[in-house]
Amino acid sequence: MATRGERIFDIFLWLLAGLVFVVLYAPVAISALFSIVEVRRGDILWETATLEWYARLWQNQSIMDAIRLTLVVGATSVVLSAMLAVALALYVTREDALGRRFIELAVYLPFLLPPIVTGLALLMFFSQVGVSRGAVAVIIGHGAFVLAVIYRLVVTRLQSLPASLVEASSDLGATRWQTFRHVLWPQIAPAVVTGSILALALSFDETLITSFLAGNEMTLPIRLWAMMRVGFTPEINALVTVVLLVSIALTIVIGLRLRAGGRE
Amino acid sequence: MSPRLARIGLFVAAASAPVVFVLVPIAAFLIMSFWRVETSQLVPDMTVANYAAFFASDTYPRVFIETLQLCAIVAVIGVALGYPIAYLIWRQHGRLRYVLLLLFAIPLFMSYIVKIYTMRSILGLQGFLNQGLVTLGILDQPSLLFIYNRLAILLTMAVIFLPFAILPIYLSLERIPRSLVHASADLGGAPLASFRYVILPLSAPGTIVGALFVFVLALGDFITPQMVGGPSGFTIGRVIWSQFGLAFNWPFGAAMASLLLLVAFVVISLAALIARRQRV
Fold first, then answer.
1. What is the pLDDT of residues B188-242, one digit of tens each?
2. Which of B69, B107, B101, B70 is nearest to B86 (CA)?
3. Residue A210 and which of A178, A204, A221, B156 are 20 to 30 A apart at CA?
4. Which of residues 24-43 of B touch A (CB under 8 A)?
5. What structural domains does chain A harbor?
6. CA-CA distance, B30 to A124, in Å (whole number)?
7. What ipTM score was computed for the predicted complex, to two decimals?
8. What are the boundaries of each domain within chain B?
9. Domain B50-279 is classified in which CATH homologous superfamily?
10. Dist CA B78 CA B216 (whole Å)
11. How many Å apart are CA B252 and CA A120, to the nearest integer?
């Protein structure tokens, strides 16, 4: 039986969680509000309510360009990163692998270090080897940043597999490639997909590293940052609302997949 | 080819991409912190002038210390709010626990820029906070107390990075075997005693890791100070960023970022050490 004190404590915890919940979800509520009605000096003018801005969204060229670039950067960097992550994971789980910790350090660093350091390091490196700021630089930056996430999930999955699986396959005369294609890949594919969705979500929102590498080719967060200095129009708020809802949906998908994976 | 050579060859192939795209750039940037700028040109050199200029300056070391303090406070707020919430989630069962966890994880993936923008429209002169306080009669008129100063940076960072504290704390709570908690209760331990002697010590390492994580995230943030900090709210991240815009002094920026990297490296190593100990 819960004592009176415990019940009061419980109520306090729920109140705190509720308050934090409201603050954390304020971005969605406020963007949605500003996209529908006009707010002047903190007063909400309900008579101005309209959904017109959502229809006009598609006509803003600079925003559409930014979204297109964001998607191209996300898809390219995630595919490249996923391939590299699988190759590295296969390598470090080999029994005769050299420098395992060295490779893991290099993989995890861009994810752990403050993005200002990663961004700066890549900017300076690129300036010396002649890669100019722009889409290519951003793709490499995002690739380095999200690699750790996909790698981590794939390695964990590979380590959970019994060694007998590969041994049986080679005993039966399968080549290395056949073993990978028909034995290992089906086992790690779910981890690769989950990692890639997670990586895509990270790439979609990456701002700090990108700010050093983008130059004139702006991804969506960089474009929004530039627009923030003059204030968001209702149109931008409409866009932001859509983007937030998409990222919420994506997170729920990741959550469901991670939960299903953990149950296996 | 001998097996030994083959092994080395395979290592070189595997390590090449991480080395080229991660370690070489970091090395390049550490090296550039010893270069100098002459008439808007980068000059390769081996001078400690950038570091000397940093420590000789009246402002930069102070800004650096103040940034560390700011990030420490953000980390403490993260734990102070994050721990009770993680504890609440952990106490629930089945579907409710999972839904709560997801609800507090979703904000991790909400747009960072939009969060800053939202905080600005909450804290601003015409913002919702001021409107609320004026309506309640606490303030006579809207004030600039909450925007374009250090407090604004602190509040905004606290909100942005709080979800990053909740998750590691929750994971460390989840690792506590339920049997231990039950045993403590069966032995007549009052809930408070169970918490004090079982739950708190066992979740402490994860909590510290969460705090360190938030600290590093706050340390590298330069857009929040720029957007809500106003002219007085300078952090070291913002100073570094400015070296790549108007000031155009990359080597000096690199030197300051190297110091920041050093702090981050110490903090991350500490977190890794604690995390590894916990698993044993």
1. 777 778 888 888 988 998 899 999 999 999 998 999 999 999 888 889 999 999 8
2. B101
3. B156
4. 24-26, 28-29, 32
5. 64-233 (1.10.3720.10)
6. 10
7. 0.89
8. 50-279
9. MetI-like (1.10.3720.10)
10. 12
11. 12
